[in-house]
Amino acid sequence: MDRADPERARVRPASRTIVASAYGVEPSRLAAQVVEFGRRERLVRAGRIFFPLLGGALLTLPIPALHLASVPAFLLAALLLGIRRLRERSRVERLEGPCPACGGEPDWPSGSLRFPLTRPCAECGEFVTLEPERGARIARDERLDGSR
Ligand SMILES: [Zn+2]
Questions:
Q1: Phi then psi dihedrals of residue 61, to 5 deg
Q2: How close is the Cα of 27 to the center of ligand 1, in Å?
Q3: DSSP assignment, residue 91?
Q4: Where are the domains of the chain?
């Protein structure tokens, strides 16, 4: 096991199919590598960003004048980024495949994506809607208020 990056060793990307559709053409299928985070991973990932920022707030607390700006800024960043990671249930590591409109292979978006997602193709400019294949569910980011 890779000790240098335990997070990566524990959470393996899974292969998923994303359907790319555009107006008036046959949809194409994209191969996606998706990492899904369980409850524990989400807490660990949130803590890794929350506590260093909280530390920044505490470290700058005794500094006159500066602390007026730095403490609220660090606390706000800690909360916003921590909550964002807590809600992040899946991440698309890689997305590859042909554009349904032009057949080219543009650089598809990756990272924390919310589906369905509509983006213009970088090669032909056609708007392409990306959606997980029916039946292949990708964990959606959790809403804090419990709604979907
Ligand atoms: Zn295209």
A1: -55, -45
A2: 12
A3: E
A4: 1-37+88-148, 39-87
Which comes out higher in pLDDT, residue 7 or 99?
99
Residue 77 Cα to ligand 1 midpoint, Å, equals 37
Distance 95 CA to ligand 1 centre (A): 15
The SS3 of residue 5 is: coil
- For 91-124, letters b (16+ CB in 10 Å) and e give bbeebebebbbbeeebebeeeebeeeeeeebeee
- At 2, list the tokens: 């890779």
Distance between Cα 120 and ligand 1 center (Å) = 8
Write down the pTM of the prediction.
Answer: 0.68
Lowest mean pLDDT among 28-42, 53-67, 84-98, 125-139: 125-139
**Residues 1, 17: Cα–Cα separation, whole Å:** 28
For residue 116, cis peptide bond before it (omega within 30 degrees of 0): yes
